Amino acid sequence: MTFKAPDSLSEQIADYLAERIIRGELAPGERIQEQKVTQALNVSRGSVREALLILERRHLIAILPRRGAHVTTLDERSVRSLCALMGEFYILLGNAVAQRWRTESDLMPFMGIQRRLQEAHASTDIKTFVAESFAVMRAAYPFADNPYLQETVENLQPAMSRAYYLALDQRQANMLDYLELFDRLLAAVVARDLPRIREVLTAYCQRSCELVLAALART
């Protein structure tokens, strides 16, 4: 594989490796060697080194002295911690949309995501379904207008994608559950019902956490 667009080369490499980690092609604890990645992707070692730093910031790898870069592990503590934190971020974003949308056009991006989620469910397209699930957050960023929240969520999103993908891929989670949740969430946002938003998202994160842990128990 050869990448272009040198201005974003490190990000492209990081995205490529992140996708492999999220899909389980790079296993927990597996070492990622700079030289091998450099040769496989036909890129510079400096770009690979920068990409690994990006992946470390996204909590997908750990870089240890004299041991190099290794894929992080998923265990009960990390999954519960991640789900609890992301749940609060989801609530902040959901509340921001509910409080600040003004016209129907403001909600059109979310309607589009809802349609694409339905299409991904119909075709059992796990990769697209997970991607569209997180597209909801990005559609909410302009309403929150909080760069610190956005940066934190973006750095945690790949780790959460990895957990969701594991649950869906092992059939411990049903995509229909996610669709039904999104329908309820969207209805609460349209109604500007903040307590309902918290209720829906808290239950969703608890449910998701248990599904991921059930999937982990099967690995």
Automatic annotation (TrEMBL):
Residues 7-74 form the HTH gntR-type domain. The keyword Transcription regulation applies. InterPro entries: GntR_C (IPR011711), TF_FadR/GntR_C (IPR008920), Tscrpt_reg_HTH_GntR (IPR000524), WH-like_DNA-bd_sf (IPR036388), WH_DNA-bd_sf (IPR036390). Keywords: DNA-binding, Transcription, Transcription regulation. GO terms for molecular function: DNA binding; DNA-binding transcription factor activity. This is HTH-type transcriptional regulator McbR. PANTHER family: GLUCONATE OPERON TRANSCRIPTIONAL REPRESSOR, TRANSCRIPTIONAL REGULATOR, GNTR FAMILY. It comes from the Bacteria. The keyword Transcription regulation applies. The lineage of its organism: Bacteria, Pseudomonadati, Pseudomonadota, Gammaproteobacteria, Pseudomonadales.
